[in-house]
Amino acid sequence: MSKKKQKIVLAYSGGLDTSVLLLWLKEKHDAEIIAFCADVGQEEELRGLDKKAARTGASKIYIDDLQEEFASDFIFPMMQAGAIYEGQYLLGTSIARPLIAKRMVEIARKEKATAIAHGATGKGNDQVRFELSASALAPNLDIIAPWRDESFRTDFPGRTEMIQYCQEKGISIEASAKKPYSMDRNLLHISYEAGILEDPWFDAFAPKNKDMFKLSVSPEDAPDKPEYVTLSFHKGDCVAINGKAMSPLAVMRRLNKLGGKHGIGRVDIVENRFVGMKSRGVYETPGGTILHFAHRQIESITMDRDLMHLRDSLIPKYAELVYYGFWFSPERDALQAMVTDSQKNVEGDVRLKLYKGNMMTAGRRSPVSLYNPHIASMEHDPTNAYNQDDATGFIRLNALRLKVATQVQASAPSKPKRAAKKKRKR
Predict the structure, then answer these.
(1) 133-180, pLDDT tens digit by residue?
(2) Residue 312: Cβ within 10 Å count
(3) Catalytic residue (choose from 19, 94, 97, 133)
(4) Are 25 and 117 in contact (CB under 8 A)?
(5) SS3 at position 256
(6) Which of 21, 316, 13 is nearest to 166 (CA)?
(7) Cα angle vertex 323, ends 39, 45, to 5°?
(8) How far apart are CA 366 and CA 181, in angstroms?
């Protein structure tokens, strides 16, 4: 009686790397490979992927549309937190990885697989994100990372060898030995890195490189006429655009089109990877940039000052947890609970003006606005809520420690100067 083969669930895209991985894993581990492709809004051609996976050697393939879950359970909670990594990166790639890992684990359990495998390199963040997520959800599941296997790197030191391997095995792929950069796309963004972009002096936004971008036009090519858009929020989530109720997925799709049309959401950054090195990346996040900005505007009139400052103090930590791969961690859960509670009164409308790469606030309103023009006005306050005379004592009390410190330091005896050391005669 022949021994039953182990099953491995592979994160599969049908591209060069995962096509090689599928067959290599099957041969190396003498295993049954179950391919899994997550549709998280990359809009890549998925038609025929099941047949390609089968021809390459997969026993089964799952192609799952996860876009609605991605928008509602991952993007929107992160937007509520105001998360942004190192002040620039809206975490488009980072936030998709835990969802993909979650679905891989679910498939592995269903298929009674003993391991999952991914094609993330040993120098990047994605290997950490996939594996931390899988470890949190299925501690007993083995994880195979071929790029950290020296024998795999020996067999495939570069793209040329991978292309040759596919040709020898009869695997159909569309790839060239030299690719100017790598690209990763989902509902929230597109990232570009490596290749020509590894030179931080290279101008990715130069007119000659305009064909690289997929989601947005350059600000110079955006319409000469501005466009106004109104986003409506309920408990911190955008629930309607221009008065039309929408699901989180529909919101992201609509904002991507609007932002892309007006050249919004392009950034070029050098970020600090979790594994220790710096990395240069170029990102297009049109819809996410609008949503992040509008959410802040509605918070400005609905959120208590100290609550906002407390939440803001946690943004760097929350962003790190997402970027590093700790989505399924107790500390992220705790922060999310605090964030969710902070959003219960974030309600109302924000009107924005979109014009050539810029967003300008054109209005805010809320039924629970904490902004009171009578109190804030320089004119007479009919509510008598604020007595300017009270500011005298307020300032005096806050100045007390500053005065005391200055007085103490001024009266303290000066420290004697050290005598200069005599030079030794040689």
Answers:
(1) 999 999 999 999 999 999 999 999 988 898 899 989 888 876 566 667
(2) 14
(3) 97
(4) yes
(5) helix
(6) 21
(7) 20
(8) 45
